[in-house]
Design a protein that fits this description.
The chain is an alpha+beta fold and about 110 residues long. It has three helices and five strands, in the order βββββααα.
């Protein structure tokens, strides 16, 4: 995806980190700056992890609406991250169940 710049130039979309600390993360995308509180996002991700684990749903499906609604982040900057997070948790869940499968009791018929 390319966006036209001045005089017909094209630019690749790049997310550039401006500031990262324990209290705030600021990034820039196509010249617009966005920021959020990292401690609040960590707490939200922790709660989403617990709820997602209980119900067996991907965390990205739960956290994305919160990032858009409460953190006021645009969907085009978080969509890839939430999809990647869902992918990683799916892989981790499949590996975990593969590791514990030999230890589960079997039912003899």
């Amino acid at each position: 995806m390319r966006k036209a710049g001045a005089a017909g130039e094209t630019r690749n979309p790049v997310i550039r980190t401006i500031r990262f600390s324990l209290t705030e993360y600021v990034y820039e995308f196509y010249g617009e700056r966005f920021s959020f509180n990292t401690a609040t996002l960590f707490a939200l991700a922790f709660a989403v992890g617990i709820v997602g684990g209980i119900y067996g749903v991907g965390g990205g499906a739960i956290i994305a609406p919160f990032l858009v609604s409460f953190f006021h982040l645009p969907i085009y900057t978080i969509a890839g991250a939430t999809l990647f997070g869902t992918f990683l948790t799916s892989i981790a869940g499949a590996l975990f169940y593969a590791m514990i499968a030999p230890f589960t009791p079997t039912r003899d018929s």
